[in-house]
Amino acid sequence: MVKNFYDKVAKKFGNYSTPVKIFHAHTDGSPEDVFKEKLIEASGKNKVVLDVGCADGRFTISISSCFSKVTAIDTSKGMLESARKLQKKNNITNVLFLLKNLHNNDFGDESFDVIYSRRGPTDYPEFFRLLKEDGYYIEIGIGEKDTQRLKEVFGRGQNYGDWNSSYLKKNIQEIEKSGLKVIFGKDYLYNEYYHSEKDLDIFLQGVPIFEDYDSQKDKDLLKKYVSESTTSKGIILPRHRIVVVVQKYK
After folding, report:
1. Count: domains in the chain
2. Which of 7, 28, 91, 178 has the smallest number of CB atoms closer than 10 Å to its CB?
């Protein structure tokens, strides 16, 4: 269903981006900025990197100059079509976009110096296999408290009800069990603000918080959330991200 969801988003919006302006309020730094900084610290002109779940390729292309070669994989044909169009437009030659599933790939052992995932799939034993010795895996993922109140109002959603289980601790346990070593791990709680109910509606059409979101069927639920979440800054949507940096030692 996730694959079909991203194909639908690519068809509707042309890429993994909705035409909505969002105001972010961070109290402890932007997790996206921290993730990118950590990735660039691990980069090198002689290094090859694997982008797991590249979506429309915008981020992939933005960091491509930091590496010798980027292999970017996704399971959505629609997203990959958008990525290749963007690649051609920007004349990027060191990126290879592939329709491939992380959990069933044909890459050889120790193929990559760096692997990263931006809210994409994870498979820590597979990352251990694919990474070269001393290689890095960098991840930004979704935390357990992400959009909690919105999901409570809707009575469903991504990881619904799993509010009190620390995903960071769980991920660290799984990472260490796979043989990798965590050298950085942190939770980031912050707020997003939307100018109007329509903006939030458009945003929800393009993200998998509710893969079955329907503007008409969910209209009353959205109005309920908006009525209790409107502030002087706009409609508040609390977010939760996790950033981890992992290294492979033998």
Report:
1. 1
2. 91
Positive or negative torsion for Cα 121, 106, 174, 70: negative
Report the distance separating Cα 84 and Cα 98, nearest Å.
Answer: 10
Give the pairing type, strands 67-74 and 95-99. Answer: parallel
Using CA atoms, how far residue 6 sits from 45, 98, 133, in Å, is: 32, 15, 34
CATH classification of the domain holding 71: 3.40.50.150
Q: Hunting for tokens 């290094």 — which residue is that?
A: 47
**Letter for the amino acid at 237?**
L
Q: What residue ranges of the chain have pLDDT lower than 70?
A: 1-19
pLDDT of residue 23: 87
Taking the C-alpha atoms of residue 2 and residue 25, their distance in angstroms, rounded to an integer, is 29
- State residue 8's pLDDT score: 60
**Rounded to an integer, what distance in angstroms lies between the CA atom of residue 205 and that of residue 243?**
25
The residue segments making up the domain with residue 39 are 2-13+20-248
